[in-house]
Write a structure and sequence with these properties.
The protein is an alpha+beta fold. The protein contains 2 helices and 10 strands; from the N terminus they run αββββββββββα. A hairpin with a 5-residue loop joins strand 8 and strand 9. The chain is elongated.
Amino acid sequence: MSRSLPVVLALALLSLAIAAPAHAVLYTVNFMVTGDLNDPVNAGLNQSGSFSFDSSIIPLGGGSVQLPATSGFNLAWDGTTWNDGNTGTFELVFDTDGNLTEANIFGDPNTFFLVISPDPVDDIHLVLVGDGSFFAYTREGVEAEYEGGVTWSVSSGAAPEPGTLALFAPGLLALGLIRRRKS
């Protein structure tokens, strides 16, 4: 019995040394929209917003993802709070290194997809693409479409997940110690 304890301890330490925890990376896109200078109500108004997506949706080698899973959309604009319930991400585009290069998001208070046009209700269309980014919107009761500006950035944070072996090793160690005490 006393011989098995060093073996158990060695296995436990080895499993801790080789266990590499997985990382889920949550990306957050922060943006600032600016009202169209021709909009008599929101001209020059700045509002910040954000949304998030998980690294698991990024295609290997880059590319486009249609109707991706995003979450936490948040923007208060012209009396409407835009969130996951009334917006939808139509497309995210990634370069070969997995960096977000484009985002295309629509919003309508009644449904999250629309074709924006002069509309009697609030609608938004947020296009994030380098220097060509824009923020298009309509206002309730106004038969006009406005196009404001938008700036954006992406940040990430790794959330480590415990590795199976890393959890298994302390259990082996505990079993070894229990067995030792019994003998």
